[in-house]
Amino acid sequence: MTDRELPKHYLDGYAEILAGVAGTGRRLTREEIVSRRTLGEQAAAAGHGLRALINVHLTAARTAWPGPPGSADDALAAVQQVIDAFAEGYERAQLLAVRQEEAARREFIDDLLYGRSDLGRLAERAERFGLRLSHAHAVAVAQGPGAYDEGDPVPQQVERALISRFGDRSVLLTTKDGRLLCIAPGHQDEVLAYFAKQAHAATDGGRVAIGRPQPGPGGVVQSYEEALGVLELAERLDLDDPVLRSADLLVYPVLTRDRQAMADLVAGTLGPLTTARGGAQPLLDTLTAYFDSGCVAAEAARRLTLSVRALTYRLERIHKLTGANPADPAHRYMLQTAVIGARLLDWPAKDL
Q1: Helix (H) or strand (E) holding 183
Q2: Is residue 245 domain-shared with residue 187, that is, in the same domain?
Q3: Is residue 118's pLDDT more than 90?
Q4: H or E element in which residue 185 lies
Q5: Taking the alpha carbons of 66, 71, 73, 75 in that order, is the dihedral positive or negative?
Q6: d(CA 7, CA 226)
Q7: How far apart are CA 103 and CA 100, in angstroms?
Q8: How confident is the model at residue 217, as a pLDDT?
Q9: CA 21 to CA 42: how far, in whole Å?
Q10: What is the pTM of this model?
Q11: At what angle do helices 281-292 and 329-344 cross, to 10 degrees?
Q12: Directed axis angle between helix 153-166 and helix 189-202, to 10°?
């Protein structure tokens, strides 16, 4: 829309204000300033550009320029007041619109990730934010050393990188509970992989978990919960990988699905370690290092800052207390499963 096509009512009373100011040298009245603000708000709500509106005011000022000598300064002062009040009203309306949009976005994200809203209505609202919930989606969650909000530099840095790389691909970036989230169509794994790379760097080495693609309106919350579960799992198991995929760690939920059975296995297999001098933890750490190093004694000893002889002594002690030999393939699976269970259940720090 050009300047000439702008509705004329935004200039209602403008020429009269200029004429009155030029004739008396007065300042604008409170009522006149309020009227300009109101018109500015109306113009913003109608979607008109501020630059075009200012140009229309300046053109009208030239057309209705008062004639009496010495009135130019007063008229210019009035023009300044009118435009300032008009722009203030415009900016107020824009700020309100931004806040309303932010509130609507946050409400939508909360409903999406908690599954609280009617799925049909949720799918309708999702299109406004670039998501089509009839398709499968996957969620990546990044957790750094601090908590992040959407307006913080870290989320903005990651978002700029994604937009620069992929443009508009129906991807939603947001934050939740201090973490960074990326929601993308399930078939666009390259988007989530790039998000993980950027988020890991932007959060100074933070950890990123990626849930599996899940179909339908409820798929986002399922993938999100999977990613959160992976972050919790990584913390319990002290996993070093900066990027973890739930699809690669499905064995752990299987192991913990029957918590009581796992607790029984840990207690029955590793419980005798509690009778050792110094308690069970040092021997449990020995088993963890031994299995994590591929059952290579020299590497396990290096990780524990022990001599190979000291490590061998500990393994023999474990064999004697538990009756299971870590070096024997027939016993290894049971021991390793029990060690994983102990880490998942935070044993022996917590009672089973």
Answers
A1: strand 179-185
A2: yes
A3: no
A4: strand 179-185
A5: negative
A6: 54
A7: 5
A8: 73
A9: 25
A10: 0.62
A11: 120
A12: 150
Domain count of the chain?
2
Among residues 253, 282, 308, the one where a domain terminates is 253
- Per-residue pLDDT reduced to its tens digit, 331-348: 898 999 999 999 888 899
| pLDDT at residue 72 in the model | 66
Q: State the Cα–Cα distance between residues 77 and 203, nearest whole angstrom.
A: 51
Give how far the C-alpha of residue 328 lies from the chain's centroid of Cα atoms, to the nearest Å.
46
Cross-strand bridge partners of residue 244: 209
In order of 57, 62, 75, 95, 168, the CA distances from 17 in angstroms are 12, 13, 9, 28, 47
Domain closes at, from 227, 253, 279: 253
d(CA 208, CA 186): 17
Q: Backbone phi, then psi, for 27, in 5-degree steps?
A: -90, 165
User: How far is the C-alpha of 245 from the C-alpha of 251, rounded, in Å?
Assistant: 12
Identify whether residues 159 and 222 lie together within a single domain.
Answer: yes
Residue whose structure tokens are 């994604």: 162
Pair (335, 289) in one structural domain: yes
| DSSP H or E run through 209 | strand 207-210
Where do runs of H (alpha helix) occur along the chain?
Answer: 14-24, 30-45, 50-63, 72-114, 119-128, 153-166, 189-202, 219-237, 251-256, 259-270, 281-292, 297-304, 308-322, 329-344
Q: Specify if 263 maps to a domain.
A: yes
Write out pLDDT tens, residues 258-315: 888 889 999 999 999 999 988 999 999 999 999 999 999 999 999 999 999 999 999 9
Same domain, 226 and 145: yes
Structural domain boundaries, residue 149: 130-253
Q: Measured between alpha carbons, how far is 98 from 204 in angstroms, rounded to an integer?
A: 31
Comparing C-alpha atoms, which of 208, 155, 205, 210 is closest to residue 188? Answer: 210
pLDDT at 196: 94
Helix (H, G, I), strand (E, B) or coil at 181: strand
**Which pLDDT score is estimated for 326?**
92
Phi and psi at residue 157, to the nearest 5°: -65, -45
Beta bridge partners of 139: 183
User: Any idea what the CATH number is for the domain that residue 311 is in?
Assistant: 1.10.10.2840
93, 134 Cβ separation under 8 angstroms: no
